[in-house]
Amino acid sequence: MPDRIEQAKRALRADLRERRQTISAHAREVAEAGVAEQLDALVARLGARSISCFLSTPTEPGTHAFVRAALDRGIRVLLPITREDGLLDWSVATADTEITEGLFGLPEPVGDVLGPIAVNDVDLLIIPAAAVDRQGMRLGWGRGYFDKTLGSMEKCPPVYAVIFDTELIDDVPRDVHDQPVTGVVTPTRTLPLAAHTS
What we know:
The protein is α/β, with parallel strands linked by helices. It has a single domain, classed as NagB/RpiA/CoA transferase-like (Rossmann fold). It has helices spanning 2-21, 25-46, 64-72, 145-152; strands spanning 50-53, 76-82, 88-92, 98-101, 107-110, 124-128, 131-133, 138-139, 159-162, 168-169, 183-185, 190-192. It has a seven-stranded mixed beta sheet with strand order 3-2-1-6-9-11-12. A three-stranded mixed beta sheet has the order 8-7-10. Helix 2 (25-46) packs parallel to helix 3. The longest helix is centred in the first third of the chain and has 22 residues, at 25-46. It is globular. The mean pLDDT is 93. InterPro entries: FTHF_cligase, FTHF_cligase-like_sf, NagB/RpiA_transferase-like.
């Protein structure tokens, strides 16, 4: 049974990855501006003063403009750093944070490293996803970092996944360790989902 779920996930990820490759540079710029606007409004609505946010890769909906704007407004932003053991360390973003290539070629901050539990203090988690379904189940990229993080948090704040509009789908293949999200942020809207009401 798990094999069938894993195969379905792999096939869906491959399709989504391919679709992301075809998005034009102009469409990406428009998407990054839209995501920044949606996330700004979400942070304001939740009154979040401390958040975590991933640094987007070139094919993901952009988060860099949002992170810069959040720092300008005095919001504390934790950026994830992947570890060999499958956990995430965190670093506090600054206006001049240097970005390097981490494990798996992902953009990650260079700076003082805080351990995995640092994220327990945030008011909002903003995480990547390949797709999310209407029940709030998230399909990640298969490495399990954010599922482990969410599953280990004692008191999890709202969790929003950033995706393109077409990546909110009816159903994602689901395994026992997969963690739901509170909602999604796309370039055009912010949508709380059924799994949570935050």
